Amino acid sequence: MTTRAVTNGYWARTPAQAEARLSRLSVRGLKEINFSTGELHQRAVPVQNIVNGCIAALGQGLRTVVNIDGFSGTTFDPTPITAHPHLAGAVAAGDLRVQTGLWVSASAKTPLPHDPQYSVFKTRDRCDYCLASPAVTPDQRLLACCGLRVLAIPELQVGSLRAASLAEVLGRQGDDLFQLWIRCEGPAAILEFVKEHDPDYVLPDGLVHICQACEHLYHDTHAQTVIRSHLAQAKERVSLLVRARRAFEAQQRG
């Protein structure tokens, strides 16, 4: 395993604070840091914090990524990062990756505007993070993934690391049909499976992020009922997908 921290950089108020924090984490095994920023983040954390954090992270030899919240109508300008005299060279060399991704609000009740072309039923992404990128919360809960909405899904909260090791908590988890299915085919495909077996089921509009679709799936009791009614078919499908995925991953490893 490798280790990654995802943060809004609230702690990097000065270059010295950023350096102090990241030097401690680097010594303890941190390998990568992802900074989240953008128009919405700027309400709480100024972009200068991100600059301070990136400079310190690169100085520690950490893989460094900046994720910018993207949605229709955003006016965020990334040039204070990408054109900064201490960061522009790292951007050009690929040592600092600055990318824009679809951003969703913390609450499903207040969605952000996005172009319909990003509908999850058009992209049909699978989740490479489920079962592969467990996350640890500040209160030491282990989560099955690092998704944006994972804290709203109790089924993805694996256990506590306060009294047990990472290996012990992961070992108790066992195989989970939904998690395997999400990893191999994605939540949009699962919802389409529901539609196939219940033509009256209405696919949810407005979902543009895989984490939104995952949250919807785990809270959609009707969809879960349909899946339980066709459990043998679902298990057979997931079994085939898992075998294909494992064969592909083994081939990729050489």
Overview of this structure, please?
The chain is an alpha/beta fold and 254 residues long. It has helices spanning 15-27, 47-59, 79-82, 88-93, 120-123, 166-173, 177-184, 187-197, 210-219, 221-229, 231-253, and strands at residues 4-7, 32-37, 63-70, 96-102, 135-136, 141-143, 157-160. The chain folds into 2 domains: 1-103; 106-254, no CATH class. The strands form 2 sheets. A 4-stranded parallel sheet has the order 1-2-3-4. It has a 3-stranded antiparallel sheet with strand order 5-6-7, covered by helices on one side. Helix 1 crosses helix 2, helix 7 packs across helix 11 (231-253) and helix 8 packs across helix 9. 29% of the residues are buried.
Task: Provide the fold topology.
Elements: E1 4-7, H1 15-27, E2 32-37, H2 47-59, E3 63-70, H3 79-82, H4 88-93, E4 96-102, H5 120-123, E5 135-136, E6 141-143, E7 157-160, H6 166-173, H7 177-184, H8 187-197, H9 210-219, H10 221-229, H11 231-253
Parallel strand pairs: 1-2, 2-3, 3-4
Antiparallel strand pairs: 5-6, 6-7
Helix pairs in contact: 1-2, 7-11, 8-9, 8-10
In summary, what is this structure?
By secondary structure, this protein is an alpha/beta fold. It is built from eleven helices and seven strands.
DSSP strand content: 5-15%
Radius of gyration: 20 Å
What's the total number of strands?
Answer: 7
Mean pLDDT: 91
How many separate domains make up the residues?
2
Unreliable sequence segments: none
Helix/strand class: alpha/beta
Taking the sheet with the most strands, its summary is: 4 strands, parallel
**Cα distance, first to last residue?**
18 Å
Order of helices and strands: EHEHEHHEHEEEHHHHHH
Strand order of the largest sheet: 1-2-3-4
Tell me, briefly, the overall form.
globular
Helix fraction? Answer: 40-55%
How many distinct helices?
11
Oligomer: single chain
